[in-house]
Amino acid sequence: MRFFVDTANIDDIKRAFDLGIITGVTTNPVLIRREGTQDIRTRIEKIRACIGDGEILTQVVARDTDEILRQAKLISTWDPNITIKVPLTLGGIPAIAELSKMNIRTCATVVFDAAQTLAAAAAGATYVAAFLNRTNALGIDGFKMMEDIIDAFKKQGTKTQVVAASVENAHDVLRSVKLGADVVTAPYSVYEALIRNTASYATVEEFLTGWSCKEI
Fold first, then answer.
1. Do the domain assignments include residue 22?
2. pTM, rounded to two decimals
3. What is the CATH number of the domain that holds 87?
């Protein structure tokens, strides 16, 4: 089980890594643009500067195979521990297959159906990112989708790992881990909520209030 933080905001990344439980960062074009920039490389460099050797997953901005490949090969030269997010589309799958031959790590992203991931695994994707709550919003059970992916991969001995993405709260994290997701990626606020429990804080205050010594 690994936790990644899903953001391009440097402050949130620092806060997340300060928790001591985060090992990677996932971004996409929307998250990067939300930070007021479209300079992906500079943003990746800023992320790297504050996360040590943690893994970074960043996405191409292209539709057709040739352009996906061009961007992916370029991005892969920017950082030694970077994984390229490639859309799971007719343009993306051939790119994943070619990048796999070049030993460039990929994450097949925008997954909304378990059957889609069979193609990603066959193409050699390092990860597939199951969009849980975005799938729920379509009236389809995103967690059942992820369960089907994990089950199919286990039965086939597939090396492709499953990322639980589009995660909205702490219970989504727990459910994803119970289903067997290899990685959960979520905003910093979700991890804070995972740890922060009102009863825990109240009990700590009770213990501290009842302690009369000023030192240990």
1. yes
2. 0.92
3. 3.20.20.70
